[in-house]
Task: inverse folding
């Protein structure tokens, strides 16, 4: 039985049976923006997480609901994405959402662990934040906040959907694996590329810094960064990259191919150049990625723990920027007629005492 929030989020995941899991190619769409390079998101690790949130994660979970009971049959037999989603909804979404709600209630109670300024955030199904009836442009998962609705579209019910703060997508491990980017033979790199371009496009379309791909073998979290390079004229647009570029970390992606189905979406409020279809032309740096195995458990980064973390970061600031401060760092905030305080750049925690950590001026 879990005793702390950390224990709760590192309970072992159920063993899954992929014997009958579908194989074959992944969905592709030429309108998706290609990530021309990926690189390891080195900061996204267990040590950094504990340093950022140790007071919250070490909190007792007395009164927290027990983890869901998962029977090996039928829940753990994975045949297709639908059966995988059924497991993820019953197990992963339940645990992550419960942990996020517990965290919100804890921070709102004024406990002695510090000033965290926590806003509610939920791991939800993507349909709640869908901006398109076309499934190719509808993430399977969303991070949403109560009352935060999109101004870009109205659903068939006449109501605007929720803003997707952190899009996610489900894939079968028998059709996609993050390690395939290192395999030169066959079509492995090409198949690796498709879901990565898909989640990259979802993040760009939602102006979301973070996103993820979830399979029955791993979670891949991603962070999107704008490039400081000047925007090139349309006549100099590069063709889609060769497979060799996927193992590089210095290229940047060019977003000038978003489908007209999303042409009404506001991707960049700062007013950069636009294509004839109304979409901004933007450059992006290499996509940062980190894989967390489904089998990880106590004492290491787990799928549930990583999802809790990425939702916690997204609620603070999910906008796509040219650069980001170190995850475990503080900034001194000096406001008029107020006592200066230190704010953590990732967790948002505030303190008047000088932290024993990196401080950015």
Result:
């Amino acid at each position: 039985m879990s005793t702390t929030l950390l224990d709760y989020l590192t309970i072992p995941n159920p063993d899954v049976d992929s014997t009958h899991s579908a194989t074959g190619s992944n969905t592709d769409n030429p309108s998706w923006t290609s990530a021309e390079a990926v690189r390891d998101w080195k900061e996204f690790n267990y040590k950094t997480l504990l340093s950022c949130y140790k007071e919250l994660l070490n909190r007792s979970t007395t009164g927290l609901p027990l983890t869901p009971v998962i029977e090996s049959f039928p829940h753990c037999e994975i045949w297709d994405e639908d059966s995988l989603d059924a497991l993820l909804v019953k197990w992963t979404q339940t645990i992550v959402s419960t942990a996020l709600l517990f965290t919100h209630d804890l921070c709102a109670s004024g406990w002695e662990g510090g000033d965290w300024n926590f806003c509610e955030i939920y791991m939800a199904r993507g349909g709640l934040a869908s901006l398109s009836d076309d499934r190719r442009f509808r993430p399977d998962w969303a991070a949403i906040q109560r009352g935060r609705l999109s101004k870009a579209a109205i659903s068939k019910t006449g109501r605007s959907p929720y803003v997707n703060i952190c899009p996610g997508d489900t894939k079968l491990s028998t059709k996609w694996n993050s390690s395939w980017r290192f395999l030169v033979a066959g079509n492995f790199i090409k198949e690796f590329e498709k879901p990565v371009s898909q989640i990259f496009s979802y993040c760009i379309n939602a102006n979301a810094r973070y996103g993820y791909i979830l399979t029955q073998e791993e979670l891949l979290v991603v962070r999107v960064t704008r490039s400081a390079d000047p925007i090139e004229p349309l006549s100099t647009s590069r063709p889609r990259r060769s497979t060799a570029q996927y193992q590089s970390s210095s290229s940047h992606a060019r977003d000038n191919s978003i489908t007209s189905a999303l042409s009404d979406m506001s991707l960049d409020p700062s007013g950069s150049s636009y294509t004839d279809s109304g979409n901004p032309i933007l450059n992006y740096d290499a996509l940062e990625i980190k894989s967390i195995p489904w089998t990880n458990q106590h004492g290491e980064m787990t799928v549930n723990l990583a999802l809790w973390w990425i939702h916690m970061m997204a609620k603070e600031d999910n906008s796509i920027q040219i650069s980001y401060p170190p995850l475990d760092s503080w900034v001194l905030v000096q406001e008029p007629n107020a006592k200066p305080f230190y704010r953590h750049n990732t967790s948002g925690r505030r303190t008047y005492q000088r932290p024993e950590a990196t401080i950015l001026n």
